[in-house]
Amino acid sequence: MRDCDVIFGCTDDHAGRINLSRLCFQYLIPLIDLGVVIDSDGSNIRSITGRITYVAPGEPCLVCRGTVDVGVARDESLDPQERTRLAEEGYARGLEEPDPSVIAYTTLVAASGVADLLERLFGFGSPHISGEMVLRIADRKVKGRSGSPQDGHFCGNAATWGLGDQTPFLGQAVWPE
Question: Which fold has domain 7-171?
C-alpha cells in the first residue's frame, strides 16, 4: 500500500485502523477511513451511523479522533491463546463479534467516501472540508466533525511525517507481556 496515491480503509478492527493511520503519516498517503455502526437492542435497530474520515498530515489520526481505542487494538494484536489467557485473568477484552452491517448502508458510506475524494481532488464544494463526515442515516442528517491531534502524538509531530521505511515497520514495537 505504500505505493498508493490514496487508501480507502474499511477494516472492522482497531488494530488495522491504527496501522492504516500510521501508514498514512509515515508514507504521506491520504487515508479515507469508512465505517458503519448499526446499534440495536437485539431485536430493534436504534440507529445506523456512517462515518467518512479523512486522515492525512495536518489532520488528526484515528486515535486522536477517538475512532480507535489503543487498548482494543493491543488486545486484537495478541496471539489468540495469549488473548484468551489474559481475558480470563481480566487483562484483555474477550473476542467480540464485529457489528453487523447491511450492504445498502455500507454502499452508501463507500459512495460518500468516493465523493469526498472527488471533492478534495477537484476542489468543488466547501473551501475547507471537515476531516470527518458523520451520516446519521435513519435521521437523514449529515454533519461535519473536526478534531485536533493529542499532545505528543505522531499525527501532530511533523518530524514523524514521511519517514518511509523503518525497522520495526511503522515504528511499532512488540506489545509487552
Answer: Rossmann fold (3.40.50)
